[in-house]
Amino acid sequence: MDTQLKEKIKALAKSNSQKVIDIRRHLHAHPELSFQEFKTAKFIAETLRSEGIAVQEGIAQTGLLATIQGKNPKKRATALRADIDALPIQEANNVPYKSTVDGVMHACGHDVHTASLLGTASILNTLKDEFEGTVKLIFQLAEEKAPGGALSMIKEGVLENPKPASILGQHVYVKTPVGKVGFVEGVSSASADDIYITVKGKGGHAAMPERNVDPVVIASHIIIALQQIVSRNCNPLTPCVLSFGKVVADGITNIIPNKVNMAGTLRTLDEEWREEAHQKITRIAQGMAEAMGGSCECIINKGYPPIEQDAALTQRAKEGAKEFIGKENVVDLTKLMGAEDFAYYAKKTAGCFYLLGVGNEAKGITSNVHTPTFDIDERALTIGVGLMAWLALKELSLN
Ligand code: NI
Questions:
Q1: 131 Cα–ligand 1 center, Å
Q2: 282: exposed, middle or buried (Cβ count in 10 Å: 0-12, 13-18, 19+)
Q3: Do the domains 191-302 and 3-188+306-396 match in fold?
């Protein structure tokens, strides 16, 4: 594609940069939890309409779809996706755009993804007489909370009429410095399943353990025993994580409770092993509880599947990124155990999900996503905005 168009995109990304930063800061200061993104959706719609971009609101309640048609709009369609929800975390940064909502924070950078896609929309709209085809911009609700927003938006038809031949998404990544972009090939993110285990025993006086069935001791054994799912049962070449972040035994110093509730997550990149692991977890937990005189209920809620990057699209996007930001700024990254419901789009059409470097060690911007001190080097926004516009136009230029 012609370098003139590339330079135009770069110039627009640069001249729009303050506006995109302001949008990001507004979103950051006003975060909303998954499935509750009402004000966020309204803000997105208003921003798009102020630029004269057609937008459909209320998809699966708070999702939006903007459409930009170039010349000959039926020629080819491609889709771009951003997620819009925030997390239940209390922000600990002292910045002018700090979250104004108690206990809610854009700690996963979805404010960045949304602001970036709005910036991309503006560029594509400005250039719509210079390309052929249609770009669909998906602003997706509820990425952070199962069952997620992607599936319901797909059900409501965001990938139909026209059907995009490809979809691109990006995610902030603090381990990669600002200025760089990372790609992962093959299966790039993990599945994530929620595990809920309730161990039932018989509570009573802590001084008379012989009269009780202590669920706290049983639960402790179960947690340790389940470690062998990863260390002894899983193929060492298959990445797998099993973590329990919640263990509630609500007794006191001298009272043993009747039950213990535990919640954890299982993540892996192998769909077959995933099913097997579910069965093994259940069997070990129930077997141990019964062996010790108690019982155990095990509920596993299946979450997002792994993202399978389309090989050809990923190669094209990588090449496009090299053209746009320079070969030296495009890096190969290893697989990540995070989960993403972008995976559902990638099951329907060719998908590529890449990582936008936002870190800056010298400025102390090193906190990971999902922490109270997460932040980004905002120079990443200009790159995110321009690169996505460039990649979208490259997709549309295919025959
Ligand atoms: Ni995220």
A1: 31
A2: middle
A3: no
Which parts of the chain sit beneath pLDDT 70?
Answer: 1
Q: Which CATH class is domain 3-188+306-396?
A: alpha beta
pLDDT digits (tens, 9 = 90+) for 48-101: 999 999 999 999 999 999 999 999 999 999 999 999 999 999 999 999 999 999
Give me ligand 1 centre to Cα 173, in Å: 10
How many angstroms does the Cα of residue 171 sit away from the middle of ligand 1? 7
Of residues 32, 143, 308, 341, which has the active-site annotation?
143
Fold (CATH) for 191-302: Alpha-Beta Plaits (3.30.70)
Query: Given this model, what pLDDT does residue 2 score?
Result: 77
Distance (Å) from CA 222 to ligand 1 centroid: 31
Q: Which two tokens stand for residue 384?
A: 């995110």
- For ligand 1, the distance from its centroid to the CA atom of residue 288, given in whole angstroms, is 36
Is residue 328 annotated as part of the catalytic site, yes or no?
no
Q: Which residues contact 70 (CB under 8 A, 6 or more apart)?
A: 127, 128, 129, 130, 131, 132, 133, 134, 135, 396
Buried b (16+ CB within 10 A) or exposed e, 92-123: eeeeebebeeeebbbbbbbbbbbbbbbbbbbb
CA 86 to chain centre: 11
- One of 32, 37, 83, 85 is an active-site residue; which one? 85
* Domain residue limits, the chain: 3-188+306-396, 191-302
The yes-or-no answer on residue 297 being catalytic is no
The three-class DSSP label of residue 242 is strand
Selection from 282, 280, 293 nearest residue 217 by Cα: 293
